[in-house]
Amino acid sequence: MLPSFICFPLFHLFRTNSNSDMRTGTSFRHFIFLLFLLVMLQACEEHVQINLRDAESVPVIEGVLTDKRGNAFVKLSATVDYFHTGHFPVISGAEVQILRDEGPPFVMIEESPGLYINYVARGIPGRKYTLRVAFEDEVYTGVSTMPSKVAIDSLVPEYFGGTRFSEEGFLVHCYFTDPAEQKNYYRLRVLKGNFQSNYYYLLDDRLNNGMSIHYFLFGKPFLPGDTAVVELLNLDFPTFDYYNSLSFVVASSTQGMGTTPANPNSNLFPEVLGYFGAIAVDRDTIVFPDPPD
Amino acid sequence: MRQKNPILYVFIRWAGMAFFLYAFHVKGSGQQVVTMSGFVRDSLTGEELIGATVYLEEIGEGTITNVYGFYSLSVPAGTYRVRFNYLGYREKMITLVLKKNESRNVEMSPFTHPIDEVVVTGDIADRNVTYSEMSVTNLDTREIKTIPVLFGELDVLKTIQLLPGIQSAGEGNSGFFVRGGDISQNLILLDEAPVYNASHLLGFFSIFNSDAIRDVSVIKGGVPAEYGGRLSSVLDVKMREGNMKKWNVSGGLGLISSRLMVEGPLQKDRGSLIVSGRRTYADLFLRLSPDSLIKNNVLYFYDFNLKANYRLGNNDRLYVSGYWGRDVFRFRNYFGFDWGNFTTTLRWNHLFNEKLFLNTSFVYSNYNYVFEVVNEGIEFDLTSSIRDWNLKADFQYYIKPGNTMFFGFKSNYHHFLPGEVSSRGDFPIHDKKLETKYAREHAAYYSHETEWGDILTLKYGLRFSMFTLVGPGNVYRFSDEGFATDTTWYARGEIIANYPHLDPRLLVTLRTGSTHSIKVSYTHIHQYIHQIAQSTASTPIDLWIPSSRIVKPQSGSQVAMGYFRNFGRNSLETSAEIYYKHMDHQIEYRNGADILLNDQVESQLVFGRGWSYGLELFVKKNVGKLRGWISYTLSKTERSFEAINNGHVFPARHDRTHNLSLVGLYDLNDRISLSASWVYYTGNAVTFPGGKYMIDGQVTNYYPERNAYRMPPYHRLDLGMVLENKPGKKYRSSWRFSIYNAYARKNAYSIYFEQDEDNPTITYATKLYLFSIIPSVSYQFKF
Fold first, then answer.
1. Over the Cα atoms of chain A, what is R_g?
2. Is the pLDDT of residue B320 over 60?
3. A236-258: burial string, b at 16+ Cβ within 10 Å, e else
4. Which residue in A64, A81, A82, A177 has the most chain B C-beta atoms within 10 A of its own C-beta, making it the best mutation to test that interface?
5. Domains plus CATH for chain B?
6. Per-residue pLDDT tens over the stretch B23-61
7. How many Cα neighbours within 13 Å face the side chain of A188?
């Protein structure tokens, strides 16, 4: 899963900006394998023409409810042919609600095509929420329990000089304290403006339950004066499992090795692409200083 | 016995009847029977010859030597002309007046060069037609030495991939698939020791140093009862024993590695010793790099083989053999990773009398890896290992020609350490040791080979095996989501899971003529320890796990039928075989499995079935200036898992419809021989996207079906040439030149899909290929 204790040294060795994920299981293999290729062999790449059979378009549902007002959204879209260029189709006119045990459901209003919003909806840690999406005589549901919130203790920048494989700049170490009494699943997100880093920083507390966790957020370096927002997302297992299996798909499609790719494990029923997550979020901001001499 | 196999019941009744009839049959013959027995050896080195034929002309009866070079024939008293034959050796004929039991050891002299070989006498058809085995290939190490391979490094595992029914795991990979099985379903034995990871450098080399190897046989089907524990095949590798007559040194220098071997008599014709070693040094070139990122890396492997044997009188012989190999990898000062096997075999051959042969072995095998990270504030070790101790005894009782009994037992103790992390310094992670798992695997077998007239030979057998997983340890139960719902502690020695199984084996040989036969076999096998590969190639960290309450033993059954025919006085061997194989309780990781240091790794598994069927054609020319073979396999391999591909049947990754190999060797003259091999196979079954969608701010591939696409077909030509120095000198040397992928085909190793960096809505397919044309040269010497 993503123990940063392995990613960190790997990162040092291999500070590239490629869109590779650094989860241990697969990336470890890729890493030794790629290294071997680099060192000994003349591995080469070239673009090829592949004829793919286009599958029937299927709906994609992405639903998120957080513990903050104004963050709840549901996006409804559909798959397209693989080599299609241009926009992705959206699903409009659906009836979308987030049901809760106490109180009336949050009704999600279609603000722009395919994007359903409720500005006052927010979740409370420990409560269970159910997403209900109805369109074209089909009803999809997904259940998620909002976990209790773990906060970021501190963010610490570190400066790296450039190498042949990587650019110079700042990266961030994130510190937080895992509560011992429960099983926790985390995702970290790094945002620069509205742009989200496309690495998946996922971890659970299986190996470091109850400890102070030091997570190194490798990725594209920041420059002096940049501002980064780091979010610590507290997930329930199904949501974590979705992101985790999604990161496998991302890894296998970009690297072509490792596990046979498969669609991420969804918590929606009947089976469809996407997920619904009730997520408790803590966020912190860091402004990068001038580089050390 | 909880046996649900109806075939087994029929089999037992039938076998019992056959045995009864046989006993009756023996009583009927009243003549005085005497036994001649002994060992067949190489006259130059004194090493035993495996599979040499012994034939009595007068009565048309014969046998072949066992894996220790021993033969025994019980025949009516009389005078016989006895012929000994072995491929590549001059025929030896002796006349014997047999009045009483006679022990006769025979030395045969090899042809100095294959060019001298003549076709063996036509009376006896070759082993492949008459002998009671099928789907078996024996490779002569001399064959291995002439076939070109990657980097000019001789490799047994690469060479067997040129045989029918055996597929390569991928470009330059020493891993192999046999008749639709996985890599971990091959039982790989090195002097009887199980080898848990047979590859070096991530599969580009095998652990078998061809200098140290004498005989290689691959059993794809009709597996005899003495073997068990892996579903797919048996690769039995025997190490050389060392020259009994004189000391000599041989070695080789290559681009990638060098080797050295010393062998000689401990005491002439009584005992010998052989030591060999090799090391790769490709990484030394890295030191030349001015770039410190590249300069300070280390990547190499080394291995040693050692074997000694000593004859204690005529009836006893002791052997000790060992293998030790390690891959070492260091990335600057940041991290190190090394892995390797260690095996030891102690053996005692004992002849009770002319008819009863016993081999007893004690075997130890250890595979482990250590992963070490040393970095500012982040220091830890991760280790994992699997260890085996086993004791086995194998009896062979030669009742009379065409009538042999095989029986024995094996006791195996497994010790699994799935993973242990220890942190150093103030690195924030708990030290963690996954529970060590302990298991016992016992087996006993009986099999009997009996001839019914000149036409029919039956070899039937039963193998009883029992696997027991014992404490100490926690046993978990899991919810559907994979969470532990309860935990039970088992004390030391307490039985956690116990699986007894009875596996029948049957092989029928019908001799349809002097040069042709039909063979049919049935094999049932259980496999109790499992390795689940996560990625395409085998890696050093693939985990072995024992059967438990959740992980049931894998079981497999195979039916095979073949027609074997030799032409031109055995100079041309041909065969055609068809098989069907079914495998139950197959294992894969669930999607998004979390396996790193996970005590509950069993919750991350899904279970299903697999099957494979196919046709294999083989033509081989053994003698003459031009030798070689053609092998073709037509096959289909599928899997069915409830939790994968929505429960629909899907092709296995290595389901390759066509698989063709052409191998040619040609002796130009006494000093120069040329070789060429060409392989062609259908591309692997792979999963490609059937669409894409946007989620979590990313464009993501949509995979509607598993393994529904094919990689492009693979084909490759390799060329080789061996140039020897002038014959007759004491110092022998040769140059070996080879060209891998001679017409530089860019065979796809993987194809992946990526988005345009600037415009994520545009996607490309990109192929990665590993090797273009690779020439290499190496130098061999012997004195």
1. 20
2. yes
3. bbbbbbbbbbbbbbbbbbbbbbb
4. A82
5. 6-125 (2.60.40.1120), 136-234 (2.170.130), 235-240+264-782 (2.40.170.20)
6. 444 444 456 888 888 899 988 888 888 888 888 888 878
7. 28
Give B329-348 as a 3 state SS string: EEECCCEEEEEEEEEEEEEE
CATH fold for the domain made of A59-146: Immunoglobulin-like (2.60.40)
- The count of other CB atoms within 10 Å of the CB of residue B294 is 16
Residues of A in contact with B772 (CB under 8 A): 42, 44
How does DSSP assign B379-409, residue by residue? Answer: EEEEEEEEEEEEEEEEEEEEEETTEEEEEEE
Pick from B536, B593, B701: which is nearest to A253 by CB? B701
Residue B476 tokens, joined = 């978990």
Instruction: Considering only residues A102 and B639, tell me which one the structure prediction assigns the higher pLDDT.
Output: B639
CB contact under 8 A, B593 and A241: no
Residue B116: pLDDT band with limits 50, 70, 90 = very low
* B247: Cβ contacts below 8 Å, ≥ 6 apart: B262, B263, B264, B265
Per-residue pLDDT tens digits for B752-780? 877 777 776 677 788 878 777 888 888 98
Q: How far is CA B195 from the centre of its chain?
A: 9
Which residues of chain B neighbour A86 with C-beta distances below 8 Å?
A: 761
pLDDT in tens, B232-262: 999 999 998 888 888 999 999 888 889 999 9
Length of chain B equals 783
CATH hierarchy code of domain A152-263+279-288: 2.60.40.10
Question: SS3 of B116, please?
Answer: helix
Enter the ipTM: 0.87
- How many CA atoms lie less than 13 Å away from A192 in the CB half-sphere? 15
- Whole-number Å distance between alpha carbons of B402 and B699: 68
B361-364's contacts with Cβ under 8 Å and 24+ in sequence apart are B361/B192, B361/B390, B361/B391, B361/B392, B361/B393, B362/B389, B362/B390, B362/B391, B363/B192, B363/B193, B363/B194, B363/B388, B363/B389, B363/B390, B363/B391, B363/B392, B364/B193, B364/B388, B364/B389
Q: In the prediction, which pLDDT does B584 show?
A: 96
What pLDDT shows up at residue A2? 28
Say if strands B53-56 and B78-85 run parallel, antiparallel, or are unpaired. antiparallel
Q: Angle CA(A18)–CA(A20)–CA(A26) in degrees, nearest 5?
A: 155
Contact B380 A87 (CB under 8 A): no
B153-177: average pLDDT? 86
Cβ distance A55 to B690 less than 8 Å, yes or no, reads yes
pLDDT tens digits, one per residue of B209-227: 888 888 888 999 999 999 9
- Report pLDDT digits (tens) over A94-126: 999 999 988 899 999 999 999 999 999 999 999
